[in-house]
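Anyone up for a design puzzle?
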């Protein structure tokens, strides 16, 4: 789920002061690090490997939880007796928590609380996972998915910063590659692991497996990482953070509930809160010297265009990943195990194409691959639009391959385009928006697809196990049509911004 992590800002690397705590076996693991003046190349495996394990585990849990739950949604929804749209909140609330908190956690980690944040993040994620597995109702599940999201935001922010903070320039590329590998392995293995566990044991264990991983990683973080440096005092934008979170949760609830349940009194209230919180957020943030989200970047039309394309890509990808497991179980009749194996296809396609395309983008430029990625958005939704139960599974597989190629061609180029569109003195701020947009786009896409599906299929309030195949197909094809339209918008927005 942390696809933008590998594209974090590298232009600041020359100003970073690496720590020589990694250069010797004789230094105590928890002693205060002293800045090294140069990369001596004497970094030992004894110290290096545990450090990489901590970073990889942080991103692995983030990537794993973004996909392992989705494959089990039909089963969880049936266990709770809820409809498909309502079950989407099990995914949406996690992404929402991540989006609302990752900028805040990144600020705290950058102020000298990196080690503490990673340890607390692993423990919080483990506790949230434990009680998600113990949940006997949807409200309990949602509460502890928020707890998971809080821990996940700590891990995503801390693990992304740790290589930049602790590794010398000569080891930085390896550190970023290891963290990316952890995220990719987590995302790629999530559907298969989730399918196997749900099919052979129960859905509860897709959460329980996070508990030992999180606690082991917390112990490793305590033993391996140096003590936090003295905290840097600075103003913390509490008002902006609260208003942003309120606007996000009310806005996403409106997107999901309005198509499926109409304009109820609750929906009307959330719309009013969303508008009020959003307007106050904009007014307050424009006057802040150090806002939680710098809005000045959005005055640039080129930055707006590539950002819109980036959001849409995350929306469509997350929406298809959300709805397809329901198709596999309800329409095709596959077990959760086989559904999980089939849902591996997008991640495998991404992994195959990602690195070669990233290397080529450095020579040919990012625009051409960003445009190909937009085309994959359109084509994947178009192929899935024509999928029918009487047609071979091959067509569905082709659609999922094209879905994976969205990030196979766009994982590096889309983020690089956002950096290119930002002024040179604001690239740091642009880079901080990457992670926020990933989780915001994923939450928005899941909410939008679930709401539109419920509306088109007339399945609002109908338990998943009772949805008719014909009604499901109506809703499935409707959201794919929306995906085609969104893909065209993203393609146009990306096309009008020329190569820099």
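Challenge accepted. My sequence:
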């Amino acid at each position: 789920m942390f696809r933008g992590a590998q594209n974090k800002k590298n232009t600041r690397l020359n100003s970073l002061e690496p720590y020589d705590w990694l250069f010797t076996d004789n230094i105590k693991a928890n002693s205060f690090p002293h800045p090294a003046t140069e990369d001596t190349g004497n970094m030992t495996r004894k110290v290096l490997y545990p450090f990489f394990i901590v970073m990889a585990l942080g991103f692995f849990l983030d990537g794993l939880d973004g996909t392992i739950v989705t494959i089990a949604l039909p089963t969880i929804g049936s266990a709770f007796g809820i409809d498909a749209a309502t079950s989407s909140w099990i995914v949406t609330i996690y992404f929402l928590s991540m989006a609302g908190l990752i900028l805040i956690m990144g600020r705290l980690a950058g102020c000298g609380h990196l080690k503490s944040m990673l340890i607390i993040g692993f423990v919080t994620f483990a506790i949230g996972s434990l009680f998600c597995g113990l949940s006997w109702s949807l409200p309990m599940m949602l509460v502890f998915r928020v707890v998971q999201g809080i821990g996940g935001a700590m891990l995503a922010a801390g693990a992304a910063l740790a290589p930049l903070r602790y590794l010398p320039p000569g080891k930085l590329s390896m550190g970023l590659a290891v963290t990316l590998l952890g995220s990719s392995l987590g995302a790629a293995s999530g559907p298969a692991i989730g399918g196997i566990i749900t099919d052979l044991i129960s859905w509860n264990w897709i959460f329980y497996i996070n508990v030992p991983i999180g606690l082991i990683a917390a112990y490793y973080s305590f033993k391996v990482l140096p003590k936090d440096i003295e905290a840097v005092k600075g103003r913390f934008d509490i008002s902006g953070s609260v208003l942003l979170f309120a606007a996000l949760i009310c806005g996403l609830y409106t997107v999901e509930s309005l198509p499926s349940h109409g304009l109820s009194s609750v929906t009307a209230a959330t719309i009013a809160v969303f508008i009020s919180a959003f307007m106050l957020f904009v007014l307050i943030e424009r006057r802040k010297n150090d806002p939680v989200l710098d809005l000045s970047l959005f005055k640039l039309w080129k930055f707006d265009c590539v950002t819109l394309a980036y959001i849409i890509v995350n929306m469509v990808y997350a929406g298809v990943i959300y709805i397809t497991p329901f198709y596999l179980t309800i329409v095709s009749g596959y077990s959760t195990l086989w559904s999980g194996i089939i849902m591996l296809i997008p991640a495998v396609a991404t992994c195959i194409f990602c690195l070669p395309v990233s290397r080529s983008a450095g020579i040919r430029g990012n625009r051409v691959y960003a445009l190909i990625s937009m085309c994959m958005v359109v084509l994947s939704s178009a192929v899935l639009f024509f999928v029918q139960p009487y047609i071979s599974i091959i067509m569905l597989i082709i659609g999922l391959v094209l879905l994976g190629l969205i990030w196979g061609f766009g994982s590096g180029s889309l983020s690089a385009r956002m950096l290119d569109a930002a002024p040179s003195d604001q690239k740091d701020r642009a880079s901080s928006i990457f992670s926020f947009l990933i989780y915001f786009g994923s939450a928005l896409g899941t909410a939008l697809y679930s709401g539109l599906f419920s509306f088109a299929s007339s399945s609002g309030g109908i338990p998943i196990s009772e949805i008719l195949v014909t009604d499901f197909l109506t809703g499935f094809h409707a959201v794919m049509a929306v995906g085609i339209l969104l893909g065209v918008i993203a393609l146009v927005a990306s096309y009008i911004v020329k190569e820099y």
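A detail worth pointing out: The chain is about 75% helix and 0% strand.
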